[in-house]
């Protein structure tokens, strides 16, 4: 998904998820696809952008409100994925909940 | 830099920079290294995390205040880099200025 073409109207919220994976897939790819489908139907979800290289993965998701973020965190299927994440997929991760106050973009 | 080991005390600020590159290096690597050295000396700079794959690059930098972000944007050497970015290195980019309200992390 190319979020650079999409801009939203601040204020809205961003969740910055930064992770280092364990080695091997361990079912991660399949679950990631399922979560992507599921989150896209979540009320208040605006969009998501991801990049991963050998060092680090960064996923930023965008939301209308803190309540929408909280509801997604409590989603039952997502809770199972979160648990598997701790057990299998991530060496470490950090989550930052942010209010987007301003944005601008450039396009050739 | 592995920011997952470092946490800061909210509230602080994050700048989410998401970009698609043009093809070829065009002097980007050298300038990126110079900017990394320079930003690390900038007052109010807390840290930076980056990931780039074939689709997208995401860089998140962390700052003590909006004023510190504004001062870095106005830095003379950084302004030259910003100009080169538009002329040479980026097909498109978006910049989001955010207040980090909450964070948590996990480590195996």
UniProtKB/TrEMBL annotation, chains A, B:
Q: Does the keyword Oxidoreductase apply?
A: yes
Q: Name one GO molecular function term.
A: monooxygenase activity
Q: Where is the ABM domain?
A: 32-83
Question: Known InterPro entries for this protein?
Answer: ABM_dom, Dimeric_a/b-barrel, Jasmonate_Hydroxylase-like
Could you tell me the keywords of this UniProt record? Monooxygenase, Oxidoreductase
- Quote the Pfam families the UniProt record gives: ABM
The entry's protein name is: Antibiotic biosynthesis monooxygenase
> Which PANTHER family does the protein's record reference?
ABM DOMAIN-CONTAINING PROTEIN, BLL5343 PROTEIN
């Amino acid at each position: 998904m190319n979020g650079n073409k999409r801009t939203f109207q601040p204020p809205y919220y961003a969740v910055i998820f930064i992770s280092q994976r364990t080695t091997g897939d361990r079912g991660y790819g399949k679950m990631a696809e399922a979560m992507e489908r599921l989150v896209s139907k979540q009320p208040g979800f605006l969009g998501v952008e991801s990049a991963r290289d050998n060092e680090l993965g960064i996923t930023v998701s965008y939301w209308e409100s803190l309540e929408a973020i909280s509801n997604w965190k409590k989603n039952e299927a997502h809770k199972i994925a979160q648990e598997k994440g701790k057990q299998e997929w991530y060496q470490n991760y950090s989550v930052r909940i942010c209010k987007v106050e301003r944005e601008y973009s450039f396009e050739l």
